[in-house]
Structures are given as structure tokens and as C-alpha cells.
Design a protein that fits this description.
The complex is a heterodimer of chains A (about 600) and B (about 180). Chain A is an alpha/beta fold and about 600 residues long. Chain A has 5 domains: about 55 residues; about 100 residues, Glutaredoxin; about 220 residues, 3-Layer(aba) Sandwich (Rossmann fold); about 80 residues, Ubiquitin-like (UB roll); about 90 residues, de novo design (two linked rop proteins) (Up-down Bundle). Chain A is built from 24 helices and 16 strands. A 6-stranded mixed β-sheet of chain A has the order 5-11-10-14-12-13. Chain A has a 4-stranded mixed β-sheet with strand order 2-1-3-4, covered by helices on one side. In chain A, strand 12 and strand 13 form a beta hairpin. In chain A, helix 3 crosses helix 4, helix 6 runs parallel beside helix 7 and helix 9 crosses helix 12. Chain A is globular, with a radius of gyration of 25 Å. Chain B is an alpha/beta fold. Chain B has one domain: NADH:ubiquinone oxidoreductase-like, 20kDa subunit (Rossmann fold, 3-Layer(aba) Sandwich), CATH 3.40.50.700. Chain B is built from 7 helices and 7 strands; from the N terminus they run βααβββαβααββαα. In chain B, the strands form 2 sheets. A 5-stranded parallel β-sheet of chain B has the order 2-1-3-5-7, with helices on both faces. Chain B is elongated, with a radius of gyration of 18 Å. Chain B starts with 6 loop residues before the first strand and ends with a helix. The chains are: A alpha/beta (about 600), B alpha/beta (about 180).
Amino acid sequence: MSAQDVCDLPGIVARWHHDPANLVQILREVQDSCGTIPSDTLDRLAKLLDVPRVRIESTASFYAFFHAESHGAYEILFSDNIIDRMAGKEALKQYFCERLWLEPRKLSEDGLVYVDDTADIGLADQAPAMLVNGYAIPSLDKARLDLVAELIRARKPLAEWPPMLFEIPDNLRKPGPLTGEAFAPGAALKAALSRGAETTLAEIDASNLRGRGGAGFKTAVKWASCRKAEGEAHYVVCNADEGEPGTFKDRVLLASHADLVFEGMTVCARVIGARQGLLYLRGEYRNLLEKLKSVLAGRREAGLLGRNILGEQGFDFDIEIHLGAGAYICGEESALIESLEGKPGKPRNRPPFPDRCGYRNQPTVVNNVETFACAAKIAEKGGAWFASLGTPQSAGSKLISISGDCKRPGVYEYPFGVSVRQILIDCGAEDAHAVQVSGPSGTCISFREFDRRIAFEDLATAGAFMVFSRERDMFEVARNFTHFFAHESCGFCTPCRVGTSLLRNIMDKLAAGKGSAYDMNEMKHIMHVLRGTAHCGLGHTAANPVVQTMEKFPDAYEKRLKRLDFEPAFDLDGALQTARLITGRDDEWAHLDND
Amino acid sequence: MTEPKKLKVATCSLAGCFGCHMSLLDIDEKLFELVKVVEFDRSPITDIKHCGPCDIGIVEGGVCNAENVHVLKEFRRNCRILVAMGACAITGGIPAWRNNVDLWDCFQEVYSYGIGLENGQIPNDPELPLPFDKVHPINEVVRIDYFLPGCPPPADAIWKFLTDLAAGREPKLDYDMLHYD
């Protein structure tokens, strides 16, 4: 994968059927084979796909993993979630850079290696972690980084690196109905076929299954509406863009229970009458791609995908995998569809919702990985069985991804209704002080609230559960999250594009010891603007970490406030230093009092 | 009948183009109405050099040098209500375009290599305001109470804003006064 490799553009474009809707995939392959997406490639792509160049460029410039300048033969991206930082990521990154005589965000002199940060890569249970040319390496320490540095110095191709570097254990600590029982591929599908589409839908309805991506919309309602909607084709889309920092349960489902997920998608296809399914796999899970493809191939061979599935005449369905390219916003379902269509991942106006107007403007079911896994189990074992688990409003079980200050981080499967306290006992987090439930966009709870329960009616969650002990500074946690949102805002609407940056700047101002009560009020004001006017959920929730930690851990903020009234955002006298050097002046008027 | 007490208003232009002040003058004949309720202190209109206690201070332009900070702090000390008027005061605006250019390069280009320059040298007179390495919006230097957007804000918006304040109301601008395309 060196920059010298010539990239076979016509071949890549042909592999993706000359369809501009596959532009993100085409760009990914170009990036993969050339190491960059050079400007002249954009021109050639525009010709080959017969679309304007701006269309190519808008997509190419949107995604974090695409870049026009070379990042060398080895691109190293350190995961920069707060959990990675707590595990010593900053010091390790510095150590690594020193070993290779590097500066972050600067290509090495010999054009060999480039080091930068990236948003959480779904390995918070094995933090700190990093991506090397898109492939994840977990549990970093000095010894492992020494090895990586040696391999890079020896210019070993990534394919020849020791496989143990890339081994990612599931860390499944508490199995349950989804993860604990063996699943025979085809079992759910057979049951669904013998029941018929309508009765299968009725079972899903009876199960009370709600979406596992966090919002908790009732799955049967979505499927029924999509089934009824008229269109040229129906689509099933599995949202495996697990980008919420601290979430990694889909990683485990896809690594070890992919059959269950694909089977759930196939059951859905049967119910809504779809012939094509798409799995949108986040780019950070590149290492899972080959395995998932082989599972799909196995299912085709077993007659569980393809034409006349399980001998049922006219039941044709197949699944294609699309890889993301480092954009958190693509976890939002309409942004995800835009990305599947080869466009920048900007959320659409809703309604219409995807069940009527989704992929290629056709009726589409978009569900979370875990939702499809649940649907397969329900098809196999019936709705009543599923509804008997959990609470009346939140049926079934939930996979929780636990990370941070606990002895046993990993994936735990609980029936809904479990208390935070119980989870903390199970994962060995005796001195927990705060928990961030469902990631930065979720809820921060303090030790006073540990009797709250994981359920849609109390603490709704997509699965993240980050634990912070008494020693942790909750201000720094919130500051890390504001940086995350400012980076991940898609830029479509002004309140979010500007608001998330303002929040980040004010938090940095506070961190520099220049805070005042004025800044605290400003942040509350920005929160109201974001909640009231942002285009999508990212903006609506972007101020949550700040506002919630301000309310629950006021000390963390107050100790940073310099004065009550106001404090300049930058060092006034320091900002004159350059001009003093240029002019050689040091008179009274060449200085400013910082007080 | 006693005359109602007039509001004292001070204005200044920092790193701006005076376009906002021109827009203020653009309220035309309403100026006669305005001077019935306000009295100007320090302002380019009066040429008063330093301001005393005021009700309203209006600042055009961002902060690009040390002198701007002195002026801004004088306004903050003296004005009950401080208003950032126009894009430059609010965001740094066009002067902030230089933020992408190194200050050394700016000086060299202007004083050493500019077209038509001979024996150019970088001035170091203490009377000259010393520039910051970046241009900043004024709310990064002092607390600001109101932001009046636009490049420049339309005369009607300035009129509505000032008369609202003079009447003791919370200023409220309709959408069409904030909408530019």
C-alpha cells in the first residue's frame, strides 16, 4: 500500500457498476490503493462517472479518511476518546512520535509515516487504540508501540505484520439471549417462511421490539409502514456505523454473531418485500470486512441469500457491504442513506422518513445491528418469549459496552430495567463517581443517580457506558466531547457548525484558566440555540455534556473561573509579542495589562 | 414640562471601515428624531476624544492592535450597555482575513517589498498602534451586551435597535432586518 502503487481507476469504477451512487466506496478504494485522492483523480472520476467534478469533490472533502495530500506509506491514527486519554494515550502518542522522530500531523521527512488523532474507533474496552492504514490495533503500550515503530522502520508491508497486533478479543463478559446461545444459520428464516410475512410481522409486533440505536422507535411500526409504502423497490439497511464514543457492542455482534444480524436483515426483507440489503459498516471496522464478506458467501452457498432463498420461489435477496470513511454524522439514518448514495453525509429533512423515502428515494428500513439480531431471535423463538424479558415498555435485552474506570471492561448483555448500580458492581467499578450513558450525546449521571435504570422509560441508551472514578475531572470529560462534536458537525446548518465551535472555544478558554461567569452563561445560551434551531440530533445534543456536567459537577467548573464578570479569551500582551519582535519596540504602548 | 433626560451614546470604529457608521448616518431625516432622545459623547461624529459615563456604547470593527484594546476598555468602563455593531465587531470580519497570513509576512510585504518601495524599513514609532498577531472579535476582549449583525447593519435595523433601547425595551429585530440574501 505505498504511494507509488498506480491506482486502477477504470477497474475500481467498473467494480462499482459505474454508478455515482457508489462514490464513497469508489473513493475508499482509490484512497486504499494510492494512499491519497489526488486532484487529477477527481477529474478522471468525474469523466468516468459522467458527473460534475464538484459532486466528486464535495464527497471527497467531506469524509475524514479521505485526503488529497499524502499521508505516507503508514498512516497512524490514535483514537482520541476521553477513555483513550485516561488510559494514557497522550503520553504514548508522544513516546511513539519521539521514537520515530516525528511531529503529529506532519508527514515524516522521508515521506514514510504520518501520525494524527481520530475520533473513538470502537475499542474503548481495549484503550488506548489506534488505526494503521485503517486497521485497528488495540491495547497499546510502550512494548507494542516499539514493535510498530520497528516494523515501520523496516518498511514491512502491513500484510506481513504479526497478526497478534491486530487481534481484538470480544471481551464478552456477560452473555444473554442474543450473545449467549448458539444460533443455527437459517433457523429464524425457516420459522419466518413457515409463518409467512404477515404473521412474522405480527410476532415482531407482539415482541414489543424497539430500535436499539438509542431512539427506541417501535420496529414493527417501521417495518409495517415500509411494507405498505409503494415504490419501485424496497431496501433493508443495517446501520453499523457505530460512531458514538464509548460504544462497541456492534463490533462484537458483527465479529462473532454476524449470521444473526444478516438473518435479521433477511427476515426484514421477507416482511417488507426487499430484494437488496446494505450493511453500512463504519470505516474504523475495516478489519471486520473480509470476515463479514465470507459470512455472506457462506450464506449464499447455504441458500440463505441469493435467488429463491430456502427454496421459496421468488424470495430473492442479497446483501452488499458499504464502508464508511470516518464520519460520525453518518450514524444518523438519513445521513447514512446520503452516504450510501455517494454523497456527503448530511442529514435530510424529515419527514419524509426512510420507511417511505429512503435509499434511492424508495421505501427503506434502516435499523441498528442489534435490532436486526433481536429480530432474528424473535423470528426464531416468537414474540411472546422476547416480550417476557425486560420491562413492559422496554422488552428484551440490551448490550452494554462498558469502558473506563472499572476492572472488567467489555460487553455485557442485560435484560432492560437493570440498575446502573448493578452494572457497576458487575464490572468492578467500586469507586465510580459518574457514568456517561449512551455516549457524549447521551446522559451524564452522577453517583447520586446510580439507582436509575437502563430502559427507554428512564435511561435510554445505544449501549455506551463510560465509567469515571472520583479522581477524574468531569470538566475534561466534557471538554473532550465538545472537541468531538465540533469536529464531527457536518457543517450543513449554521447553529451547529458555529455553535459547536463556540462551545469548544469557551471550554478551551476555561481550561486555560481564563473563564468567567460570563462564559458559563454564554454556554447555556448556545445550548438553547442548538436545541432550538439545529438541523439534526447532533446539534440538539451537542451541548448536553457541558450543560449536564455543569449542573452535576459545578466544582469542576468553578475552580476554573478566574473572576465573575469577564475575562479576555486570549493573552492580550502575549498577542503583541510577534509585533514587538518585528518592530523591536518595548515601549509602554507596546504592552498591554492582562488584568 | 421638563425635557426627558437624553440618553448618552458613544460610538467608535476599531478595525472597521466606517461602513457601519455610514449606515448609522443613513437613517437620514430620522437623525432629527434621534437627537431629540440621544446625545452623542465620544464619537467620530462629535470628534470628542475620550468618553465619559454613557448609557450606550456602539463599537464598529474588531480588535487588531493594542490601541483598540485601550479604546474598547474605556468604552466598557464607561458604557452601561455595550453593543457590537456589524460583522467585523462580531466576528473579526474582513480585517481578520489577515489571520491566515503570518504577521512577519504582512510587515515585509507592506514595508519592505511592496511595489514602489525603496529602502523600506519597518516603523517602530511608539505613537503607532502595535498590531496583534491575529484580529479578534471584540467579545473576546470585553463583555458585550448586544450584537447587531450585518455588513453593515441596515439603517432601519440601527434605528429600530436604538429606539427600542431608548424606550427601555429589549431590542427586537424582525427577520427581514436580519436577512440579507
